[in-house]
Design a protein that fits this description.
It is a single chain. The protein is α+β, with helices and mostly antiparallel strands. Helices cover 16% and strands 34% of the residues. It has nine helices and 36 strands. The strands form nine sheets. Strands 15, 16, 17, 19, 20, 21, 22, 23 and 32 form a nine-stranded antiparallel beta sheet that branches. β8 and β9 form a beta hairpin. α2 crosses α3 and α4 runs parallel beside α5. The longest helix is centred in the middle third of the chain and has 18 residues.
Length: 525
């Protein structure tokens, strides 16, 4: 056997390596654990005849838990985020996450705790059990900010136990960030279109729930059961979130071994979080396709995202007054109604209302906003018309009962969307008309408050306004919406090679985690 040859530069290399690792580095590992339960009743099924766990003894449970921890403890992550773990059965003295935290503590020598969620279920009324998402974290490195909450707002069918959110603080730097761990509807119902619709609803509920994030640097993780290009993920991209695994590992990355290997586990980050990410990668160490069935403990591989936290100024978003509408762009709807007002989307958790408004100021034809939540995206609906989508991924339509059209603005999935025309007026406003009902957007005082509603009046009176449109101008924001991947190649990167972490410098030199340079004759095993 050829001996491994390390080119050690001893103290100099070690000090250089410490420079490489400078900064407040946080490691997060996420994975779907394929039904890791505390309960041992194998007679319970997922509804399609498949047992909810693949063991029915305490020994089997311990074996799976030990395998999970042996594989994942190598990374000594600061946070582990999991899908498909069981909520605590009522009367149980422990739960699945607590088993993993205890074993991870023993394996690494660091103390890991669960992020408490208070989720329980009564086995007498819910024989199938309740699957959840959840977190464990390393207590010497991380502390909690606020409570672990559901990121599902306003809907009951999006599996609140499976969409969870927690804000964390680094003990080293004091910097905070929010992690949302999610599990979207799988394609298991036999109706592909219905499952896709459910995932679209998952994404809308997720985006609304993130309004309550304890810190604006947001990381969205999880088994989203969808590949890029599906509507549910388009909603996240439209809200300003960028997929990080594809960014760092390329479009051929995969996390799920069925169907030839697909990427359905994802890492999304908003602009301020993305600037603090140094890598995001799938680690092929868990599923049968990657490692052989003898070592498999899940049908999903885990993924790792590495953060380098630093203080960030809050971004601003600039909108410039538009003279025409272009499909694919996002616009504010603005009118001089008791001062300049921009239309809000329908409130989170609601499906209809008169659109309320936010005070804005215009300077030289531009409006600057602290976030993108007032923007409406005009999507091509054919024939020169548009679908209107809000920040939360919800599409606008107008409700009709018998022959009557309601003046409220309704929002739901794309399948419900109405098409709208948008015609520029001589005064710089736009008449945005529902091509089905003939009603148009009008900004006026509704019950004494500035609001937007649908109207079909022939005459527009004093104090009533068609909206002007202001187009989102990425060149004027002062932030980078999509980070240039090339710039990351000009800095040392942490990558996974053969299931182990190494450091790659800009010139391609490779180091192990002990600061020793690696040669081609001695690849990581």
């Amino acid at each position: 056997m050829k001996g491994c040859r390390y080119l050690a530069t001893l103290l100099l290399a070690f000090l250089s390596f410490q420079t490489i690792l400078a900064g407040d580095e946080i490691i997060i590992v996420g994975q779907n654990l394929q039904n890791f339960f505390y309960s041992l009743d194998r007679s319970r099924t997922q509804g399609n005849g498949v047992p909810m766990s693949n063991y029915n003894t305490a020994e089997g449970r311990q074996m799976k838990a030990q395998t999970i921890v042996e594989k994942l403890s190598y990374y000594e992550a600061d946070i582990y985020a999991f899908n498909e773990v069981e909520a605590r059965p009522e009367g149980a003295d422990t739960e699945a996450l607590e088993i993993l935290a205890d074993l991870m503590t023993r394996e690494t020598g660091y103390t890991y705790n669960t992020v408490a969620d208070g989720l329980t279920y009564d086995t007498s009324s819910d024989a199938t059990g309740t699957i959840k998402s959840g977190f464990i974290y390393r207590t010497d490195r991380i502390e909690l900010v606020g409570e672990n909450t559901s990121t599902a707002v306003g809907y009951t069918y999006v599996y609140n136990y499976m969409l969870r959110m927690q804000t964390f603080r680094s003990r080293s730097s004091g910097e905070c960030f929010t992690v949302s761990m999610n599990h979207f509807k799988a394609s298991t119902s036999g109706n592909i279109d219905d499952d896709r619709l459910k995932r679209e609803q998952n994404s809308m509920a997720l985006l609304q729930g993130l309004d309550d994030a304890g810190d604006p640097d947001i990381l969205i993780l999880g088994d989203l059961n969808s590949e890029m290009g599906e509507q549910c993920l388009d909603n996240l991209v439209g809200a300003g979130y960028e997929e990080q695994i594809i960014k760092y590992q390329g479009s051929d990355a995969y996390s799920y071994w069925w169907y030839g290997g697909t990427l359905i586990d994802h890492v999304f980050a908003n602009s301020t979080m993305a600037q603090q990410i140094s890598s995001a990668e799938i680690m092929h160490i868990a599923n049968p396709h990657s490692v052989g069935s003898a070592y498999a403990y899940s049908d999903h591989d885990p993924y790792m995202v590495v953060l380098n936290l630093e203080a960030k100024e809050s971004p601003t978003y600039t909108y410039t007054k538009a003279t025409a509408v272009e499909a694919g762009n996002t616009y504010l709807m603005v009118a001089p109604l008791d001062g300049m007002k921009a239309a809000n989307p329908v409130s989170a958790g609601k499906t209809y209302e008169y659109l309320q408004t936010t005070d804005v100021e215009e300077h030289d034809g531009k409006i600057t906003m602290p976030n993108q939540k007032n923007g409406f995206t005009f999507e091509d609906a054919g024939d020169g018309n548009y679908y209107l989508k809000d920040y939360y991924g919800r599409y606008i339509y107008q409700y009709q009962y018998n022959s009557s059209w309601y003046s409220n603005v309704n929002v739901w999935t794309k399948s419900s969307a109405h098409a709208f025309s948008a015609t520029a007026q001589t005064d710089g406003t736009f008449k945005i008309v529902n091509t089905t009902s003939g009603y148009y957007f009008l900004m006026r005082n509704e019950s004494g408050s500035p609001a937007v509603s649908f109207r079909n009046w022939t005459t527009i009176y004093s104090g009533q306004y068609l909206p002007a449109l202001y187009k989102y101008d990425i060149t004027a924001t002062g932030i980078k919406e999509i980070a240039d991947y090339a710039e990351h190649l000009n800095a040392p990167r942490k990558v996974v090679e053969n299931g182990q972490i190494i450091i790659v410098t800009p010139d391609g030199t490779r180091y192990n985690l002990q600061g020793m340079r690696l040669t081609d004759e001695c690849p990581i095993q």
